[in-house]
Design goal:
The complex is a heterodimer. Chain A contains 17 helices and 31 strands. By secondary structure, chain A is α+β, with helices and mostly antiparallel strands. Among the domains of chain A are: about 265-315 and about 325-435, no CATH class; about 580-595 and about 630-749, no CATH class. In chain A, strands 4-7-2-1-13-17-15 form a 7-stranded mixed beta sheet. In chain A, α8 packs across α9 (about 450-470), α9 (about 450-470) crosses α11 and α12 crosses α13. Chain A is elongated, with a radius of gyration of 33 Å. Chain A starts with a helix and ends with a helix. The relative contact order of chain A is 0.09. Chain B has one domain (about 1-165). Helices cover about 20% and strands about 40% of the residues of chain B. Chain B has 3 helices and 10 strands; from the N terminus they run αββααββββββββ. In chain B, the strands form 2 sheets. A 6-stranded mixed beta sheet of chain B has the order 5-6-2-1-8-9. Chain B is globular and about 45 Å long. The chains are: A alpha+beta, B alpha+beta.
C-alpha cells in the first residue's frame, strides 16, 4: 500500500510528460540551449567590476576623477550678437595615467558652416515650406555659428599645437602630462550667437520685435574639457546635437561684461552685487536672503519695462565664483524681472530665483520661484541636501534646458496674459524637471553623451514624485500607465533603454518616460518605499560629484536592498519587451474523498486497482457521485485530522470554495502578478505574487485559491501599476459589456 | 496660408526637445462584434498633437483643445477631421462610421466610432492618415480583433493604407 502511494506520486510528473509526448508526437529535441531564463544574472551584460567601479556599485579604492578649473573673461556684444571669451584652464591629472593629449569640446561647432549634423539627417522634401524655411534650406548660406578659435597658448604665452575634429579639439602636448600633475593653458575665442527659437537650440537668444531687445540664454559657450574617466578613457564622442554632455567638476571664476542696463544671473556666487545692482535692488537682494515665505522682487516689472526701452552703450562686468561645478551658464537681458525667495534645506539657506520678461507674467510671478523651492526640498528628501547656494529658473521660449544652478524653462501666457491649466502645468512640470537636473546629472554626474536615461530617466522619476507632492492629481505623464502606448507600439520603432542616445528611436519615451515609469513601478510595486528609497539615496550619495555608470546604479539598488533585480533591469532596460498578463481560466473545485478521474487514470496506467489507492482528500471537478461528502468536514479523513490536531476543532475555519486560476503571460516581461479577488459579500483581497512566480514557466502559471466565500471577480493589476498593454483580458469573469458599449451608453446619455 | 506654414514649421522642428516626453503616435482599436453586427472603433491621439494638426490643416483662427477656450463647435470639427483622415472599406464597400463621441483622458483624446449593420467581414482595408500633416514621424497603430483574430498594423506617413483578409 505504501509503495503504491509512493509510486503514484513519484511518477506523477513523468506520466504527465509522457501523455503530452504521446499526444503531439513532438520530435526529439536534439539541440541544447544556453541559459535563456529571464532571471539569469546580468553577468554577460554588465562590465566586470574592479577597484574603480566595485561589485557593490560604489566607487572603489582606485576610482579617480580629473578636475578642471576655469578663469574666464566673457564679453556679450548685444548689438552684434557675438560672444567673446578668454579662458585660462588648469587641468589636474588625478588619474594614474600619463596623458599624451587633452581633448576639449567645441559644442558650438555643431552650428559651424561645415557642421555634419545636417548631413546625417535624411528625408525628402517637406510637405510645405515657409519662406524662411525655404530660404534657410535652399538659398541662404549656412549660419556661421561655430567657434572662431583665435589662440591656444600655454601658460608662458607660447602657441600650443592643436587639432580640431569637428566638435572635438585635441591639445597636442609636447610631453605627456604625468599622473598627479597639472597643465595650464589659455584659449581665446569668439562666435556669432544664434537665435535659438527657430531651431529650438539650447543656447542663443530670443528677439522681441516689439521692443527690439534680445533675451540671452547662453550655454555650452566656451571650450570645455572632455571627461577622462576609468571606463571610457577620453569621452570624446562627437556632439551631433542630441546626446548631451559629459563634464568634469572644477572651480570657476567668470567675469561677464554686458550692456549696463542688462540684468544677468549665472552659475556661481555673484561676487560684486554692489557694482552691478542699484542700491534699491541691492537692498531687496539682501532682504530676500532671509525671506522664506514668498518670493520678493529684486527687479520689478516696472523697472524691467523701463530698462527694455533703453539701449545703453555703456557696459558693466558681473563676477561669479563657482566651486565644484561641472559647467557654467548665464542668462542676460534688459527685459528681466527678477524675484527671489530663501529656502530652508535642513537648516541651510538656499536661494530660489527666477528671471523672466513681462511676457511671462502673470504666470511666472505666481509659480516659478515657488516651484524652484518645492523642487529643491523634495529632491533633497530622496537624494541628499542640495549642496549649492542657489537655483535659478529662467524664462525661455519653447525650451527647457539645465545647467548647474541655472536652467531655462518654457511657459508663456497668451498675449492677453491669460493662460490655460495646460500651459501652467507644463511650466510647473518643466521647472521641476530642469531644476531637478541639478541633482542628476549636475551632481550625480553620469555621462549623458553615452546614456541619456541615466540623468533624464532618474530625473524624470524624482520629478514625478515631486509633482505629485505639489499636486496629487498632477498629470505627470510618467506613470506606468502612461508608457503603455509606447510599449505597445511597433517593435521596429523601439530601442532598449540601454542604447546610446544618438541611436535611440523615440527619444522622449525611451530616455525619459520609460525609465521613470520603471523606477516608479520598482518603488511602488516591486520594492516598496522603504527599501527603494534607502537604496536610491545610497546610489545618489555614493556618486555625488562623481561619474557613475549604469552598472553602478543597478548594483547599488540591489546591494543596498537585498533584492535581486537583474530580471527587472534585463526586461525593462535591456529589451523592448512589454507586459501583458491575463486571467486565462478559472476552474472551481470541491473537497471530496472520492478519488478523482485523474488519479484513477494514473493508477490505471500503473495497473493499480482503484480500491488500492490510499484514502486521501481530493480537490475535484468531476460530477458529484452519490453519497459524496457535502462539506469539507464530511470528509472523514479531514475531520479526523482536525479533531486530533486542533485544540478547538469547532472553531477551525475550513475553506469551502476552491479555485484553480490560470494566469497567462502574453508579453515578454516578467513582473509580479497583482491580483484583486472580490468575494460574494463585496469584500476584497489583494495579492502580490512576486515576479519569480514566472521563473520556471514563462507562459502561464496556476494558483489554487481556497476561500470560505465565493469569488465573484478576479482582477489583475486593477490600479494600472504594471504597464499592462492590454487590460481587456485582466478581469474574470469577462465583462458582458465591452469598454466600447459602456462608453457608448454614457456618451449617448 | 501663412498660418499653415507657420505651424508646419514649428512642428517639424520639434526634434530638439529636452523635457517634452514626446512621441508621435495614435492607437486605434477595431473590434467586430458579430452579435451586434457592429464594428466598434476606439481612436486614441495626444490632445496637443491633435490641436497642432487641426490648426495646421486649417486657415481658421487657431483653436485650443481641452481648455476653457475650446470652441463649442469642436465635435463637428473632430468628426470631419476623422472622416477625412481615417476610413474603412469592408468587403470592397466604403463604410461610413458614426461619430459617437469623445472623452479626454490622461493627455489623450479618445474617440468612439461605430460602423453599424455589418454582417460579415472578409476583407477590411484601412486608410489612416491621422496627424500625418504635422508630424513626419507619426506612427499610427491599428489593432484589429475580428473573428478572434488579432492583428496589429503600423501606418506611417509613407504607408497610409493596409488590407486585411479574413
Amino acid at each position: 500500500m505504501k509503495k503504491i502511494h509512493f509510486a503514484i506520486f513519484a511518477f506523477s510528473l513523468l506520466v504527465s510528460f509522457s501523455t503530452i509526448a504521446q499526444k503531439t508526437e513532438a520530435p526529439v529535441v536534439k539541440k541544447g540551449h544556453t541559459n535563456d531564463n529571464k532571471f539569469k544574472q546580468l553577468k554577460d551584460e554588465f562590465a566586470t567590476p574592479n577597484s574603480q567601479h566595485t561589485a557593490s556599485g560604489a566607487p572603489g579604492a582606485q576610482y579617480t576623477q580629473q578636475q578642471v578649473d576655469y578663469t574666464m573673461d566673457i564679453v556679450l556684444d548685444d548689438a552684434n550678437q557675438k560672444l567673446f571669451g578668454q579662458e585660462a584652464i588648469v587641468y589636474h591629472n588625478n588619474s594614474a595615467d600619463a596623458l599624451e593629449y587633452l581633448w576639449v569640446q567645441l559644442d558650438q561647432n555643431k552650428r559651424a558652416k561645415d557642421s555634419k549634423t545636417p548631413d546625417i539627417k535624411g528625408g525628402g522634401p517637406e510637405l510645405l515650406y515657409s519662406p524662411e524655411k525655404f530660404a534657410a534650406d535652399f538659398i541662404d548660406k549656412p549660419f556661421d555659428g561655430g567657434f572662431h578659435i583665435e589662440a591656444v597658448k600655454d601658460k608662458s604665452g607660447k602657441d600650443l599645437s592643436y587639432t580640431i575634429n569637428r566638435t572635438m579639439m585635441r591639445i597636442n602636448l609636447a610631453e605627456p602630462l604625468a599622473s598627479g600633475k597639472t597643465f595650464k593653458f589659455n584659449i581665446k575665442w569668439w562666435y556669432n550667437i544664434n537665435n535659438h527659437v527657430p531651431q529650438r537650440d539650447r543656447s542663443g537668444y530670443e528677439h522681441f520685435d516689439e521692443d527690439g531687445n534680445n533675451l540671452y540664454v547662453i550655454a555650452q559657450f566656451f571650450p570645455r574639457l572632455c571627461v577622462y574617466n576609468n571606463v571610457e578613457g577620453w569621452q570624446n564622442m562627437q556632439f551631433w546635437g542630441r546626446s548631451e554632455f559629459a563634464l568634469e567638476f572644477g572651480n570657476y571664476v567668470v567675469n561677464i561684461t554686458t550692456p549696463k542696463d542688462h540684468i544677468l544671473n549665472a552659475t556661481g556666487v555673484l561676487k560684486n552685487p554692489k557694482k552691478v545692482l542699484t542700491p534699491t535692488q541691492l537692498a531687496r537682494y539682501k532682504e530676500a536672503q532671509t525671506t522664506f515665505d514668498k518670493p520678493l522682487l529684486i527687479v520689478t516689472q516696472e523697472e524691467a519695462e523701463k530698462a527694455e526701452k533703453g539701449n545703453s552703450t555703456e557696459t558693466k562686468t558681473w563676477t561669479f565664483d563657482a566651486k565644484n561645478v561641472r559647467d557654467f551658464a548665464f542668462a542676460s537681458s534688459r527685459k528681466f524681472i527678477w524675484d527671489a525667495m530663501a529656502v530652508d534645506i535642513n537648516g541651510k539657506t538656499v536661494m530660489a530665483y527666477s528671471l523672466y520678461p513681462k511676457e511671462g507674467n502673470p504666470l511666472w510671478e505666481q509659480y516659478s520661484t515657488k516651484v524652484v523651492a518645492h523642487t529643491l526640498k523634495e529632491y533633497s528628501k530622496y537624494t541628499f541636501d542640495y549642496p549649492y547656494h542657489k537655483a535659478i529658473s529662467v524664462h525661455s521660449k519653447n525650451q527647457g534646458m539645465e545647467y548647474p544652478q541655472i536652467c531655462w524653462n518654457y511657459g508663456r501666457p497668451r498675449k492677453d496674459g491669460s493662460y490655460s491649466d495646460k500651459t501652467r502645468d507644463a511650466m510647473i512640470g518643466v521647472i521641476t524637471h530642469e531644476v531637478g537636473h541639478n541633482f542628476f546629472p549636475m551632481i550625480v554626474n553620469s555621462d549623458e553623451r553615452q546614456w541619456t536615461w541615466m540623468d533624464e530617466g532618474l530625473n524624470s522619476f524624482i520629478e514625478t514624485l515631486t509633482e505629485l507632492s505639489f499636486d496629487k492629481d498632477f498629470e505627470t505623464g510618467n506613470l506606468p500607465k502612461n508608457i503603455v502606448p509606447y510599449m505597445y507600439g511597433d517593435q521596429s520603432n523601439l530601442s532598449p533603454i540601454m542604447t546610446q542616445g544618438d541611436n535611440v528611436h523615440q527619444f522622449g519615451p525611451n530616455a525619459y518616460t520609460k525609465p521613470a515609469a520603471g523606477l516608479y513601478m520598482l518603488r511602488e510595486t516591486i520594492m516598496g518605499h522603504e527599501l527603494f528609497d534607502y537604496a536610491f539615496r545610497t546610489y545618489s550619495q555614493r556618486w555625488m560629484f562623481k561619474h557613475p555608470t549604469p552598472e553602478d546604479f543597478f548594483r547599488s539598488m540591489e546591494d543596498a536592498s537585498a533584492m535581486d533585480l537583474d530580471w527587472f533591469w534585463r526586461g525593462w532596460f535591456y529589451t523592448t519587451d512589454f507586459n501583458d498578463m491575463g486571467v486565462k481560466s478559472v476552474e472551481e473545485y470541491r473537497v471530496t474523498s472520492t478519488p478523482t478521474s485523474e488519479i484513477k487514470a494514473l493508477a490505471k496506467s500503473y495497473g493499480i486497482p482503484v480500491a488500492q489507492i490510499r484514502p486521501g482528500i481530493y480537490l475535484s471537478k468531476d460530477s458529484i457521485t452519490e453519497g459524496e461528502p457535502k462539506t469539507p468536514m464530511d470528509v472523514v479523513l479531514l475531520k479526523k485530522h482536525i479533531e486530533t490536531n486542533y485544540e478547538n476543532p469547532s472553531t477551525v475555519n475550513i475553506p469551502k470554495y476552491f479555485y484553480e486560476v490560470t494566469f497567462e503571460k502574453l508579453g515578454g516581461l516578467v513582473l509580479p502578478i497583482l491580483v484583486e479577488y472580490t468575494y460574494e459579500d463585496g469584500t476584497k483581497d489583494f495579492k502580490h505574487y512576486p515576479a519569480q512566480i514566472w521563473s520556471k514557466n514563462d507562459d502561464a502559471v496556476k494558483k489554487v485559491i481556497a476561500s470560505d466565500k465565493a469569488i465573484v471577480e478576479i482582477h489583475i493589476d486593477p490600479n494600472l501599476e504594471t504597464a499592462d498593454v492590454d487590460t481587456s483580458n485582466n478581469v474574470w469573469p469577462r465583462k458582458e459589456k465591452s469598454e466600447f458599449d459602456l462608453k457608448k451608453e454614457a456618451l449617448q446619455n | 496660408m501663412k498660418r499653415i506654414a507657420f505651424f508646419l514649421l514649428t512642428t517639424l522642428l520639434l526634434c530638439m526637445s529636452f523635457t517634452l516626453h514626446k512621441f508621435y503616435m495614435s492607437l486605434t482599436q477595431v473590434n467586430f462584434v458579430k452579435e451586434q453586427k457592429s464594428v466598434q472603433i476606439i481612436v486614441r491621439v495626444f490632445i496637443d498633437d491633435l490641436q497642432e494638426e487641426l490648426n495646421a490643416t486649417s486657415i481658421k483662427e487657431p483653436i485650443e483643445l481641452n481648455t476653457d477656450r475650446e470652441p463649442d463647435t469642436i465635435e463637428a470639427r473632430f468628426k470631419s477631421y476623422l472622416k477625412e483622415h481615417l476610413s474603412f472599406q469592408i468587403n470592397d464597400t466604403q463604410e461610413e462610421f458614426d461619430y459617437i463621441g469623445k472623452e479626454y483622458s490622461d493627455n489623450m483624446a479618445v474617440f468612439y466610432l461605430e460602423i453599424p449593420e455589418i454582417d460579415t467581414i472578409q476583407k477590411l482595408s484601412i486608410q489612416n492618415k491621422l496627424l500625418n500633416f504635422s508630424f513626419s514621424e507619426q506612427e499610427n497603430i491599428v489593432k484589429t480583433k475580428i473573428y478572434n483574430k488579432h492583428k496589429s498594423t503600423l501606418f506611417t506617413p509613407e504607408k497610409t493604407y493596409a488590407l486585411i483578409n479574413f
